[in-house]
Amino acid sequence: MNHTPPDTIKVGLLQRIVPSYRTAFFSLLGEALQDRFSLFAGEARRSENVHQARDIAHVERCAAKNIHILKGKTYFCWQNGLMRWLRTWNPDVLILEANPRYLHSHHAIRWMKNQNRPVIGWGLGTGGEMNLSSIVGRQWWKFFSQFDMMISYSQKGAEEFINMGFNPSMVVVAPNAVLRRPSTMTKRSPDFSEDGPIILYVGRLQERKKIDHLIQACAVVEERRKLQLWIVGDGPEKERLKRIAADILPVTRFFGALHGDDVTPLFEKADLFVLPGTGGLAVQEAMSYGLPVIVAEADGTQSNLVRPENGWMIQGDDHRQLTEYLDAALRSSEKLRGMGRSSFSIVQNDVNLEIMVDVFLTAINTVMEKQGS
Question: Within 13 Å and on the Cβ side, how many CA atoms surround 175?
Fold first, then answer.
């Protein structure tokens, strides 16, 4: 890993909320910063149904009072207590979500600039090509141009920042990871079981996850060859999905919500992991068990994980493509095992928490060196 910043440097990080899947990352970053790390964040809306982190080792937590304004594309957030936290923690470097919808960000950036201290943005990108001649485009660039450096979740996001006008030398990619580097890969039989290959889904049972598309695709393929579909998770779509499966794919098994060690045996027995809709942190976890994957393209971060050598990427909401990829995947157990080994190699060498922390430390060192030059 890169050298940690000097032991006199204090780092502050501003988040709207802290979902539980970020616990390991923030803890590892705080440890690398020798506990000189403070995190300012508030609570999600109840309707978001987000499991949020509480105590995080090596991190000083400061609670914000989030004020949520409107919804959807008109959503904004204001965080009370921000300036008190900034003055109290007095960070040498501030990292914050690069999202202009968070109205308090402008005040945090201005305060840091008045102290002649650097600010690092962290985000998905700009959401696509931005028309800088439009009013919205100019406002977005006005916001983004205040950052001294930008950390993107993916190469796609980094290219969006650069295309908007950001200095390429001040944009880095920290692949969105949720797990530490795995050490050993699950051993699997060379062949599928007598009951057919096992397709696994792990995640919330929500409409946007498109699990009904997965059931339908499996039903089409099952007409040609035996297979098993295992679904792990809970949510508002559960009963509807059970009815669909009962009608067209009776071999579907619903395991309910499982976490941690309880879901490990299913990852170890599965042959293929499929995420047909948006989101899904289980992709990296599945790959750490040596599973090939079929994943829907969503926010661009999937491209860090899914490559031709380890899986297939569904372009948009394409039910026919999902069926074709599923059929192709299940034709050869030997090919799937090889793709699974590639999955493991990717999360071991390219996308893991250690690499993510390393990129953050590099960004901190870079802006501090530039500040001192």
Answer: 21
Q: What is the number of residues in the chain?
A: 373
Count the neighbouring beta carbons within 10 Å of the beta carbon of residue 295: 22
Instruction: Round to whole Å and give the CA distance between 167 and 187.
Output: 45
Query: Distances in Å between the alpha carbon of 342 and those of 198, 248, 268, 312?
Result: 19, 33, 16, 13
Each residue of 340-357: pLDDT tens digit? Answer: 999 999 999 999 999 999
pLDDT in tens, 274-333: 999 987 789 999 999 999 999 998 766 788 899 999 999 998 778 899 999 999 999 999
pTM attached to this predicted model: 0.91
- Whether the CB-CB separation of 150 and 163 falls below 8 Å is answered with no
Please, what sign has the CA dihedral across residues 361, 367, 372, 373?
positive
DSSP result, 174-227: -----SPPP--PPP--SS--TT-PEEEEES---GGGTHHHHHHHHHHHHTTS--
In 3D space, the residue among 231, 223, 215, 187 whose CA is nearest the CA of residue 341 turns out to be 187
Contacts of residue 136, Cβ cutoff 8 Å, sequence gap at least 6: none
